[in-house]
Amino acid sequence: MPKVQRTARFVIVYNPEQAEYDRQTRERVLERLRNELEALGSKQGKAKCRLLNNQSMGRYLKELKNGNLKINQAKIKVEEKLHGKYLLSTSDNSLSAVEIALGYKQLFTVERAFRTLKTSLSLRPVYHTRDDRIKSHVLLCWLALLLVRVAEVETGQS
Question: How does residue 29 score in pLDDT terms, banded at 50, 70 and 90?
Answer without folding.
Answer: very high
